[in-house]
């Protein structure tokens, strides 16, 4: 303890305190403040940059997600359109088929009707012809043979029979 | 019978050394157990060691 | 990586904690002898002029007079002398051999007296200034009469004039202050161009950030730490650089001076007390949460603690640095005392080892001082919310 007190130099204490206090104030002004400010600023900027990057990443992600959604939608749209087209095609084909079938049926029916009509017309014609022919024949025969009654009756009977079987 | 001061100084050194040794050892163990808390343990260790050291020096100068 | 390093440094530091203790032991022995020596000297002094002769004799040892290797006692005295000379302050800046320069002496003794220390002729002669005579004895200036006999006051003590000289240590402090100013202003300037440090800043900036993030913020708190940063940074680098300067062969021992460490510790003390908040004083004088009867007892303990804190700060730094110097120089001195190659090789290795250890201690002590200072500041500004 005595040695400590003996070693204590008031001059050194004075100069040390003076110089150190001056040093604190001078360094505070010229060194520590600018350095700490710069360090803070840099840390802030790094933090900001990191936040910015994170934000950009998230944005990118959402963008990608929306892109994917759009793509998906487009794909669905395409599918839908294709399906619609296919359906329409099928529908058209079947409609056409139906129409054709009905048309054909109609044609057949009308053809049948026409045939029937033609046939009946022809039969009627034939009957008329046959009638007129028979009248002609009859006239002719009558002209020759209707002198005889029995011959006339036999003739007419024969003709009628023929007509029936025809 | 007077004990020379040098013996007292020796005793102080032994005591302080053992104390600081124990602190250091315990701190090492603690760090081993919880490596993630090593910063805090170190701070506490240095402070405790410094306090003992201070007492030790004070006693040495008194001796 | 960092934790590995810190663990290692803590370990090595721990190893060293025992070293100053041993060194102190050694130092103590020295001081013990020294005291005896001084007592002798004072007795001689009282008797008359014999001291002067003896003093000249030992000074002779210190300045390279040859002592034969067989004279172990004589050589021990030389080593002791050299170590003491190295640790003591000086009025001239001695670099190597005869190279050096005198420093101004400033005395208050019936008025201001300023003169060059060259007048003392390396402490060997009496300096006469304005009719007053002075002499350097054990690195301190004393008043003498014209023949160089030290004057005594009524109580029988030697008269020391009030001494504000720019001694070697003061010179070193000033030099370091200027050095630090240019160094850190230079670092600060590099930030003007870019936010990335360059040159010395690359090395110093991590340390500044370390002090902020590892010392100031955890101990003082996010809210208040900014006010103390200037002090903490200045004190850390000041102590560290001066400790390192002490490791150079220039032989300056600034931080191993009690006056310097007292000054640093007192500043810490006053800053702590002036920034003490209501909670802080409350915890000292009227500890909340303990029985009322115990409170005065705790107040006494806390008040003792208040005084012990700066005292331990002072002694820790002083003793560590002093002890480091004493150990290194004593072990180097052993080579001289043993005067053989078998001794030289291991002792050189040991000195080198201790030197490296001292480099670590130089940083460690600066770190601990800063850490404890911030801890005290933290206690002063802390706001408790439990009452």
Question: Can you describe what's shown?
Answer:
- The complex is a heterotrimer of chains A (166), B (63) and C (387).
- Chain A is mainly α and 166 residues long.
- Chain A has three helices and no strands.
- Chain A has one domain.
- Helix content of chain A is 96%, strand content 0%.
- Helices cover 86% and strands 0% of the residues of chain B.
- Chain C folds into two domains: 164 residues, no CATH class; 212 residues, no CATH class.
- Chains A and C meet through α1 and α2 of A and α1, β8, α4, α5 and α6 of C.
Task: Please provide a brief summary of the model.
With 166 residues, chain A is mainly alpha-helical. Helices cover 96% and strands 0% of the residues of chain A. With 387 residues, chain C is mainly alpha-helical.
Radius of gyration of chain B: 15 Å
Which class do the helix and strand fractions of chain C yield? mainly alpha
* Unreliable segments of 5+ consecutive residues of chain C: 1-63
Instruction: Please state the overall shape of chain B, judged from the principal axes of the Cα atoms.
Output: elongated
SSE arrangement of chain B, N to C: HH
Kindly state the number of beta strands of chain C. Answer: 8
Helix percentage of chain C: 55-70%
Question: What keywords describe this structure?
Answer:
heterotrimer, B: 63 residues, mainly alpha, 2 helices, 86% helix, C: 387 residues, three-stranded antiparallel β-sheet, 8 strands, disordered N terminus
């Amino acid at each position: 303890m005595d040695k400590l007190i003996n070693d204590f130099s008031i001059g050194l204490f004075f100069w040390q305190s003076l110089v150190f206090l001056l040093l604190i104030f001078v360094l505070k002004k010229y060194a520590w403040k600018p350095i700490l400010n710069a360090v803070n600023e840099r840390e802030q900027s790094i933090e900001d940059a990191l936040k910015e990057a994170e934000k950009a990443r998230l944005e990118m992600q959402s963008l990608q997600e929306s892109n994917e959604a759009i793509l998906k939608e487009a794909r669905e749209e395409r599918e839908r359109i294709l399906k619609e087209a296919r359906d329409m095609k099928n529908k058209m084909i079947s409609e056409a088929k139906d129409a054709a079938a009905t048309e054909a049926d109609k044609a057949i029916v009308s053809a049948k009707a026409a045939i029937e009509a033609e046939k009946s017309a022809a039969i009627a014609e034939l009957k008329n012809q046959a009638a007129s022919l028979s009248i002609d024949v009859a006239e002719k025969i009558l002209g020759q043979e209707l002198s005889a009654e029995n011959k006339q009756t036999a003739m007419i009977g024969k003709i009628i029979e023929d007509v029936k079987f025809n | 019978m007077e004990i020379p001061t040098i013996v007292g100084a020796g005793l102080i050194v032994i005591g302080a050394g053992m104390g600081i040794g124990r602190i250091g050892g315990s701190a090492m163990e603690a760090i081993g157990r919880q490596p993630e808390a090593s910063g805090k343990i170190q701070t506490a260790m240095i402070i405790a060691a410094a306090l003992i050291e201070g007492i030790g020096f004070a006693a040495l100068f008194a001796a | 990586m960092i934790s590995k390093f810190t663990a290692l440094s803590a370990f090595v530091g721990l190893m060293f904690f025992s070293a100053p203790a041993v060194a102190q032991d050694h130092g103590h022995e020295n001081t013990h002898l020294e005291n005896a020596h001084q007592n002798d000297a004072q007795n001689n002094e009282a008797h008359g002029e014999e001291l002067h002769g003896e003093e000249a004799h030992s000074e002779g040892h210190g300045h390279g007079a040859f002592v034969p290797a067989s004279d172990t006692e004589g050589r021990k005295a030389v080593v002791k002398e050299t170590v003491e000379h190295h640790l003591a302050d000086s009025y001239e800046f001695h670099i190597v051999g005869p190279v050096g320069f005198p420093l101004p002496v400033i005395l208050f003794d019936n008025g201001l007296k300023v003169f060059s220390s060259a007048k003392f002729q390396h402490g060997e002669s009496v300096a006469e200034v304005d009719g007053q005579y002075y002499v350097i004895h054990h690195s301190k200036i004393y008043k003498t009469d014209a023949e160089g006999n030290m004057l005594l006051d009524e109580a029988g003590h030697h008269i020391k004039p009030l001494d504000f000289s720019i001694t070697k240590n003061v010179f070193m402090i000033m030099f370091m202050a200027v050095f630090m100013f240019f160094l850190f202003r230079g670092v600060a300037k590099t930030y003007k161009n870019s936010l990335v440090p360059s040159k010395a800043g690359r090395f110093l900036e991590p340390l500044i950030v370390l002090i902020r993030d590892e010392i100031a913020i955890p101990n003082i708190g996010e809210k208040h730490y900014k006010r103390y940063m200037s002090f903490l940074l200045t004190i850390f680098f000041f102590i560290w650089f001066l400790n390192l300067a002490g490791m150079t062969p220039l032989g300056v021992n600034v931080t191993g001076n009690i006056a310097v460490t007292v000054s640093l510790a007192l500043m810490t003390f006053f800053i702590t007390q002036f920034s003490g908040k209501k909670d802080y004083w409350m915890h000292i004088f009227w500890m909340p949460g303990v029985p009322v009867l115990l409170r005065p007892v705790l107040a006494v303990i806390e008040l003792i603690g208040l005084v012990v804190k700066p005292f331990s700060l002072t002694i820790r730094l002083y003793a560590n640095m002093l002890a480091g110097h004493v150990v290194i120089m004593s072990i180097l001195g052993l080579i001289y005392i043993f005067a053989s190659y078998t001794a030289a090789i291991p002792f050189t290795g040991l000195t080198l080892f201790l030197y490296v250890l001292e480099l670590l201690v130089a940083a460690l002590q600066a770190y601990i001082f800063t850490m404890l200072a911030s801890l005290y500041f933290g206690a002063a500004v802390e706001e408790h919310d439990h009452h």
